[in-house]
Amino acid sequence: MSELKGILYELPDVERALILSPHPDDETLGCGGTIALYSERVDFTVIALSDGEAVNVSRDNKADLRKGELEDAMKILGVRDIIFFHVPDGQFRHHRNEIREKLSELFMLKKPQVVFSPSPFDVHPDHTETALACIELAERFPSIKVVFYEVYNPIRFNTLIDIGKVVETKKEALAKYHYSMLEKEDIFTSAVLSLNRFRSLFTLRDSYYEAFWVLNTGQGLSDIIDWFTCSISPPSPEDRLLSTIRVADSLVCQMRTAEGEVKERDGLIERLTSDLHKNEETISDLQNQIRLMEESVFRKIARKFHSIKK
């Protein structure tokens, strides 16, 4: 199991590559090791689509802080070319046309052979929007190879890059993202390196790996969905009907069970109420008996008192 069938262990042999980073730090989290490993032979350009100004830290000039962190990290990884799009952080879906126009212009200007992007199934909406823009543009630029990397969601991969030799370099670059990583860069670094380490399970080698899905030319969104879902077919109308019937039957059973429990509780309440009334009657009888006893004792004391007086 040192190598898995169908898995590649090298990226395409290219000279120019763009790395789409929705926010400063995404590129290092997802492919920092690969950047460091290939930077001497590949001309990387990092595209920071946003300045990351929406990060939840109590600081002024957050955009400038994050841009500075990105620049410091890229010096460590060997990247000299950084471009900022200044798309509002967290608002990519409202700027879809702007993102596509800027990327299209950049693709024509830089003529990249490979474009790295977060996965279209990443949980962050800005990451998803970046991936969708990349997928659409890939149809217009078929010579460009699209490579998806993982940030917040592990992906189904077809390429593993051994970053064991440069893992310390990646770690050093990650350490530059103090504010980008919510002032908890140690936690982010530990988590992402743990994922890189986990990938060694697929090679049984003592190392760290970054996982990618290299998109084949001509693959569209439906092909991508098939890949990430392992080609699980959608249910047929008959299956959906049976599933609905099962759900309805389960709900009916739950309702009947609940109805029985309600009746049982009502019966218990009725019994408790009856017992309470009986207890109230017993208490009333006891009170009457005590009153009679008190009256009897009082009369005896009174008679005794009169007899002594005589």
Topology:
Layout: E1 16-21, H1 26-38, E2 43-48, H2 62-77, E3 81-84, H3 96-110, E4 114-118, H4 125-140, E5 145-149, E6 159-162, H5 167-174, H6 185-198, E7 209-214, H7 221-228, H8 237-309
Parallel strand pairs: 1-2, 1-4, 2-3, 4-5
Antiparallel strand pairs: 5-7, 6-7
Helix pairs in contact: 1-5, 2-5, 3-4
Labels describing this entry:
310 residues, Rossmann fold, alpha/beta, 7-stranded mixed beta sheet, 2 domains, single chain, elongated
- Structural class by SSE content: alpha/beta
CATH architecture of the largest domain: 3-Layer(aba) Sandwich
| Largest β-sheet summary | 7 strands, mixed
Average predicted confidence as pLDDT: 90
Protein described:
The protein has 310 residues and is of the alpha/beta class. The protein has 2 domains: 16-228, Rossmann fold; 235-310. The protein is 53% helix and 12% strand. It has 8 helices and 7 strands; from the N terminus they run E-H-E-H-E-H-E-H-E-E-H-H-E-H-H. It has helices spanning 26-38, 62-77, 96-110, 125-140, 167-174, 185-198, 221-228, 237-309, and strands at 16-21, 43-48, 81-84, 114-118, 145-149, 159-162, 209-214. A 7-stranded mixed sheet has the order 3-2-1-4-5-7-6. Helix 1 links the parallel strand 1 (16-21) and strand 2. The longest helix is centred in the C-terminal third of the chain and has 73 residues, at 237-309. It is elongated, with a radius of gyration of 36 Å. It starts with 15 loop residues before the first strand and ends with a helix. The model has no long low-confidence stretch (mean pLDDT 90).
